Amino acid sequence: MTLHDYFKTEKIPENLDAIVIGSGIGGLVAAALLAKSGKRVLVLERHYVAGGFTHTFQRKGYEWDVGVHYVGEVHRPNSILSQIFAYITDGSLKWHEMDPIYDRICFPDQSFDYVAPLRAWIETMYGYFPQEKSAINQYIDAVFAVTKATKNFFMERALPPLIGKIASPFMTKKFLRYSDQSTLQVLQSLTSNKKLIAVLAGQYGDYGLPPGQSSFAIHAMVTKHYFSGGAYPIGGSKRIAESIIPMITAAGGRVLAKAEVERILVKNQKAFGVKMVNGEEITAPIVISDAGVLNTWEKLLPDNDSSPILQEFQSIGRSASHLCLYLGIKDTAANLKLASTNLWVYPSYDHDQNMAQFCRDPEAPLPVVYISFPSAKDPEFTHNFPGKATMEAVSFAPFKWFRKWKDAPWHRRGEDYDALKEKLSQRILETVYQWVPQIKGKVDYFELSTPLSTQHFCNYDQGEIYGLNHSPKRFRLKQLRPRTPIKNLFLTGQDIVSDGIGGALMGGVLTASAIENKNILGKILKG
Q1: Residues 432-473: tens digit of each pLDDT
Q2: Which residues contact 328 (CB under 8 A, 6 or more apart)?
Q3: Where in the chain is the domain with CATH 3.50.50.60?
Q4: What pTM did the predictor assign?
Q5: What is the 3-state secondary structure (H, E, C) of 284-351?
Q6: How far is CA 388 from CA 99, 439, 493, in A?
Q7: CA nearest 152: which of 525, 523, 519?
């Protein structure tokens, strides 16, 4: 299934039931679930390739994923995520389980392994921190308490407004008890051991906020997500979209790239279609935005730019922007002994201080470098790209450092911009060579993406990778739900539930459930 089916008027299906703006995982899942009920859905993607952060790209004979580095739960056949993917792909999407050590948290003096399954993770942590067994046990209990409360919290968001208003206090109370606290507050209530706190917060890059700023709810959801280890799509992350799209087209729908929406058509507070940048109007009784809530209200609903809802969204703030160094290596992962284990490299045990210092001073140590090995995770990589391997090294960087080039064309931003990219690339490479020394002298190609890359391809205004910040305030925002005050306009994606494949996928499930007024998840799990 091609991800490059480009927009043309004659490709628009007749008698549409719904239009989805954006082909990220949330938009594709919502479209596929509606298609399963017989609806004809048109998905419009402004980029030249469908899939959002699940797509891949190639340079010089190498291929990299842009956002899917590992996914939890999907390699367990009976897990919720595994069953949803099987349902919307007819079982065509296959996953390869990573090594038991799925993450390694690295500090200058010591590294700490995250080992699957959970019992092994606990025993490993006991070995590192033998005096902290009680704190580790209490931590596990807190993580499970949050994830147990998650189901009712997000189900409430799919309920009709009146029912939701009545049920909300009962369905959200337990979750909010934890989401109102920062990750650091909860961890400090369990232990005073700063090393243990830093190790337990070692995956904070997966949601973009250090422990002093992030809600413990997102921390717990991400941590629990990987307790059984990680997996990677066989054939690369592009297989996710390739496996979902046939479900949409089989029902008479279409997924079209190079299809930028200018605005959502609204009359008398009722959405009835979209206007494309070329002026063409496409109508449908349902419009779903997977473009992010800020993009939706700031750009696609220009007449609502001073609405209280938009002001509430803006008050949460945009998530972190990032750098990603893509490396092509002249040897195989097997020859180089590259494992599928992800590396999280930190300059010290104080995550919040590391981030604050770097944001103040660009010359300060990188607050984190996350190193991923896609060619070691995908068993088909060597067959598809013989004699080669790839790596990705990700760090954070404030958008303000790149703001002066935001209006310059992609790949033509000037010598100063190129010089900054080269400097940042070399800094990241220093860390990579320190922790993966065997690739030195074998790097054949590297390319750095900046927050401007995310802005250009994903239309996120400040290059934010995770939509809205996952702060305690975020989970108190009642408007982060599929239904909007504009009739027939729905939201989906990572802003509705949480970031990551699992969060955005569940956003798609909630949106389809709200539109159909059915418990779609319950139907899937019943088989």
Answers
A1: 999 999 999 999 999 999 999 999 888 898 999 999 999 999
A2: 59, 60, 61, 62, 388, 389, 390, 443, 444, 445, 446
A3: 9-58+72-94+234-317+468-526
A4: 0.96
A5: CCCEEECCCHHHHHHHHCHHHCCCHHHHHHHHHCECCEEEEEEEEECCCHHHHCCCCCEEEECCCCCH
A6: 20, 12, 34
A7: 519
Residue 96's H or E segment, with its range, is strand 95-97
Q: What is the 3-state secondary structure (H, E, C) of 205-242?
A: HHCCCCCCCCEHHHHHHHHHHCCCCEEEECCCCHHHHH
Question: Helix, strand, coil proportions of the chain in percent (round to 5)?
Answer: 45, 20, 35
Where are any strands of DSSP class E within 403-455? 443-449
- Distance between CA 105 and CA 428 in Å, rounded? 17
Please report how the helices 500-516 and 25-36 are oriented relative to each other, as an axis angle in degrees rounded to 10: 40
144-173: pLDDT as tens digits: 999 999 999 999 999 988 888 899 999 999
Q: How does the average pLDDT of the chain come out, rounded? A: 96
In whole angstroms, how far apart are CA 86 and each of 26, 233, 341, 513, 515?
A: 16, 13, 26, 18, 21
Q: Sign of dihedral through CA atoms 369, 465, 121, 135?
A: positive
**CATH class of the domain comprising 9-58+72-94+234-317+468-526:** alpha beta
Q: Which residues contact 387 (CB under 8 A, 6 or more apart)?
A: 330, 331, 332
Residue 375: which residues within 8 A CB-CB, separation 6 or more? 332, 333, 338, 381, 382, 385, 388, 389, 390, 391
The count of residues in the chain is 527
